[in-house]
Amino acid sequence: MRPLPTSFARSRAGASLYHLARCGLALAFLAAGAVKLARPEVFVVTLRALGLVPDGLVGPLSILLPGLEIAAAVLLLRDVRGSLALIAALLAVFVAVLAYALRMGLDIDCGCYGPGDPEREAFSSLRGALWRDGAMLGAVAVVYWLRRARGWRGRTLADFVRTNLPKES
Asked: SS3 of 80, please?
């Protein structure tokens, strides 16, 4: 296997692309999580319409999933190890759910960034969300490549917690 070319990755343009892609992904997840968490009852409707989880889990999932999106976004903004993998895993799940919804012919809003206009957006919302998530997976690949080419080590979660939690007196 040929090594990754590092000249671009180590350049100022590579560093800029790394920060832009990483922060863009984080802000997209932060916004999506915040919108869903602000009105979980709206997200519940989308989760129920998908029919993928039992009714008893829909309520907790409508809080847990946006919370996970926000946590992943904050960790990615702080460049913590594992956060990009978490974003990639969430995107893989979202792509699978969107593909399922399209395949089943579900006429629903994706719920990604809150409710849309259901009469205008239904199927186009799902297709648009699938394209957007695919583009975000491309950004994940770019960030992974730049990290590897630059020899990035990142902060551990323990370092993040130690430096961001208030010290006991």
From this structure: strand
CB neighbour list of residue 70: distance below 8 Å, 6 or more residues apart: 29, 30, 33, 34, 37
The token pair that represents 73 in the structure block: 């976004």
Give the domain ranges of the chain.
12-151
pTM for this model (two decimals): 0.84
- Contact at 8 Å (CB) between 42 and 114? yes
The answer to whether the Cα torsion of 120, 122, 127, 131 is positive or negative is positive
Three-point CA angle 7, 9, 10, nearest 5°:
70
Q: Which two tokens stand for residue 122?
A: 């239904």
Please give the chain's pLDDT, 169 residues, in tens: 565 567 877 888 888 999 999 999 999 999 999 999 998 988 898 899 889 999 999 999 999 999 999 999 999 999 999 999 999 999 999 999 999 999 988 877 777 776 664 444 444 678 888 999 999 999 999 999 999 888 887 788 888 888 877 777 6
Let me know how long the chain is: 169
Q: How far from 84 is each of 90, 142, 167, CA to CA, in Å?
A: 10, 11, 28
